[in-house]
Amino acid sequence: MLNKIFCELKESDNFVLMLICSLSCFIYTLFFCLGISLLLDEIYLPQVYFVGFWKSFLVKGLRNFFFVAVVSAGEGVIWRILPLTFIVWLKNKIQKEDLGDLILLSIVFLSSYCFGLSHAVPFNVLIQGVFGLVWSFLFLKTGGYNQHYFKASLYMIFSHLFYNALVLSNGYLFVKFSAGYN
Fold it and tell me: Tell me: the pLDDT tens digits for 86-129?
C-alpha cells in the first residue's frame, strides 16, 4: 500500500527533500503564527520567541545552541526513529503489508501528536504536531520504510536541526528589533 509513496530517492533528491521539509516547516510557523495573531488580535508566538528565553540565550551563546541541537536529536530518536523503526521491522516480520502499513500510519499520527503535546501547551500540537508528521514522512521517504534506518535518521535529524537554526536566528532578529531588547 505505501510502497509507491515511500520508494527511495536518489541521494541528491533526499537532500533537496530535507531542505524542503525544513523550509516548509519554518514558513508554516510564520504563517500559522501570523494567522493566529490576526484571529486573536494579539501577537501569538511559539514558546521559543519569548524575550526572556532570548535574553538568556544571548548571554549563554553557543552552549544553548548545542543544548538545542542535542534536544532536537533526542526528540527525533524518541518520537520518530525508535517507534517507526520498530513498526517497520515488525511489518516486515509479520509479512502482512496492509496491516503493517495501517499500524505504521497510526504510529506516525500518534507519535506526531505526542511530539506536539511535549512542547509546552496543547495548542502547539497544531505547530509541532504537524512538524512531527513532516519529519516522520521524511524519515520514511529517505530510507526508513526500506530499512535504511541510519541514513533516514541523519536526514530527519539534520532537517530538524536546520529548522531549529532558522527559528533561532529568526527569534534572535525578533528580539533584537523588538522593544524587548535592551
Answer: 999 988 888 777 788 888 999 999 999 988 888 777 777 888 88
Print the SS3 string covering 106-143. HHHHHHHHHHHHCCCCHHHHHCHHHHHHHHHHHHHHCC
CA distance 145 to 137: 9
d(CA 168, CA 182): 18
Q: Is 99 helix (H, G, I), strand (E, B) or coil?
A: helix
Q: In this structure, are residues 104 and 118 in contact, taking their beta carbons and an 8 Å threshold?
A: no
Report the alpha-carbon distance of residue 155 to residue 157 in Å, rounded.
6
- Give the DSSP letter of residue 80: I
The runs of H, that is alpha helices, within the chain are 11-40, 51-60, 62-76, 82-94, 97-117, 128-141, 149-177
Q: Has this prediction a pTM greater than 0.90?
A: no
Single-letter residue type at 23: L
Instruction: Please say whether the beta carbons of 25 and 167 come within 8 A.
Output: no
User: 11: Cβ–Cβ under 8 A, 6 or more apart, which residues?
Assistant: none
**pLDDT tens, 27-58?**
777 777 666 666 666 655 555 444 455 555 55
For the chain, the structural domain boundaries read 11-177
